[in-house]
């Protein structure tokens, strides 16, 4: 399972609770789209996740910025995933970033609003914030590889599923067009 988190905005610990903490502990890979804020929070997150890929966000101090890149691209279950905290230009900026990186899925944070958007050429995912939702629902994302693509859910810390989605494989995307 791939678990995606963002915007912890904590000062001392990972701020994970309930299903969010369970998912991070169970995951094969955890991705964090920035805004840990301090090295202590980053280290606490690393202690819970067997494998963590992260980027820094705008609220991260210099010590976190020194340890994490602004963006990263990786392969997971045959999908190219690009991660950034935010891009100027909203969805269009994120789509352009994804195209530049050859991504199937762009993961971002910053807004604290969990959402999934599928366009003709790329999917956008913001897992929201598991700890500081700022008027939105607290959430993280859980994704599993299936025959149709990456099947995902936006999940609240209490286990409530907010939304289900699929990042289609190239074959599934081509058959839709």
Structure description:
The chain is built from five helices and eleven strands. A six-stranded mixed sheet has the order 3-2-1-9-10-11. It has helices spanning 18-26, 39-48, 62-65, 90-101, 170-176; strands at 2-5, 29-32, 52-54, 71-76, 79-84, 105-107, 115-118, 123-126, 140-146, 149-155, 161-168. It has one domain: Purple Acid Phosphatase, chain A, domain 2 (4-Layer Sandwich).
What does the secondary structure layout of this molecule look like, with pairings?
Blueprint (H helix, E strand, L loop, with lengths): L1 E4 L12 H9 L2 E4 L6 H10 L3 E3 L7 H4 L5 E6 L2 E6 L5 H12 L3 E3 L7 E4 L4 E4 L13 E7 L2 E7 L5 E8 L1 H7 L1
Parallel strand pairs: 1-2, 2-3, 5-6, 6-8
Antiparallel strand pairs: 1-9, 4-5, 7-8, 9-10, 10-11
* Domain count: 1
Mean pLDDT: 95
In one word, what is the shape? Answer: globular
Number of DSSP helical runs: 5
Largest sheet composition: 6 strands, mixed
Quote the CATH topology: Purple Acid Phosphatase, chain A, domain 2
State the order of secondary-structure elements, H for helix, E for strand: EHEHEHEEHEEEEEEH
Instruction: Spell out the CATH superfamily.
Output: Metallo-dependent phosphatases
Which strand order does the major sheet show? 3-2-1-9-10-11
Using the CA coordinates, give the radius of gyration. Answer: 15 Å
Amino- and carboxy-terminal Cα gap: 28 Å
In percent, how much strand structure appears in the residues? 25-35%
- Helix proportion: 10-25%
Q: Let me know the number of strands.
A: 11
Structural class: alpha/beta
Return the CATH class: Alpha Beta
Name given to the CATH architecture: 4-Layer Sandwich
User: Would you identify the regions where 5 or more consecutive residues have pLDDT less than 50?
Assistant: 171-177
